[in-house]
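Appendix B, Record 12. Input sequence as logged:
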Amino acid sequence: MFTIFRKEIADHFNSTRFLILFCLVIGVALLTTYTVSMNLRSEISGGAKIEYLFLMLFTTSGQFFSLIQFIAFFGPLIGIIMGFDAINRERSAGTLSKLLSQPVYRDAIINAKFLAGIATISIMFVSLVLLLSGLGMVAIGVVPSGQEAARLAVYMLISIAYVGFWLGMAILFSIILRSIGTAALASVALWIFVSFFVGFGSGLIADVIAPTDQNNPELMLKNARIAGAISRVSPVNLYSDATSTIMDPYRKTTKSFVLVGPMEKISMSRFNSALSLWQSILVVAPYLTTLVALTAVCFAVSYLVFMRQEVRSI
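Logged structural output:
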C-alpha cells in the first residue's frame, strides 16, 4: 500500500491540472488576504483596537468574499478534481487488472488512493495557511497568539475533513461509473445541488410549512428552525457554520435567528465575552461529528463497492 501511496502522491504533484488548481487557489487566497490586510492596517493606523485581529485575515470579506467563504465554495472542486478519475482511469487504461494480477491486495489500492488524496489536501491547506499567515504578519505587523494559532489548526483539520468528503464522493463515482466524463459530471452536479439548490429550497420549504409573519416572532423562529434544519443536509452549510464559529470567538451560536426576551438581553450584556476554543468546539460539535461521519461513510461505501466489483473480467 505504501508503494501505491507514494506513486499516487507523485502523480498528484506532477499533474498539470493539480498544479493549475493549486496556483489558482494560492492566487485568489493571496489577493483576498492582501486586500483584507490593507483594510485592517488602515484601521489600526487610525487608532482602532481590535481583539483577535489575526483571525480577521481569514474571516473578513475582501472585495468579494473571505477566505472561509472561498474554501467553502471552491474546496469541493479540489476534492472532485483529485478523485473523479481515480479508479475508472486505471480501468480504461487497462492498468487496474494488471495491477491486481500482481501480489497486491485489492484494498491496498483503494486505501492508498484515498490516503494519498488526503495527504495532498493536507499539504495544500497547511502550506496555504502558513503562507497567508506570513503575509498577514508582514502586512499588519501582528503575531498570532496561542489561542489564534490553535483556532487556525482546528480550522485546517475541519477543512481537510470537508474536502476529504468530496474526495471520497468523487472516488465513489469513479468506481460506480465507467466513463471518466460521466463521473466528473455527476460529482459537479452533486456539488451544484448541495451548494445552491439546497439553500434555495430550504427557504421555500420553510415558507410553505411555516409562513412568516412580522407580528408573530414565534412563527418567524419556527420558519428559521425549519430552514436551518433543511440546510444542514448540505456539507457546505455544515462547514460554513462550523468554521465561522471556530474562527470567531465572539460567535456563541450557529443559529441565524434567535428569539431574545428582556431577561436574555440582560444575560447577553453581562456575558458578552469571547469563548474559549474548547467552548467554540462544543458549540459546533454536532457539525464536526457530521462532517467526519460523512467522510468516513463515503469512503466506506467506496471501499465496499470496489471490493465487490469484478475487475479482472473488464
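The mean pLDDT is 81.
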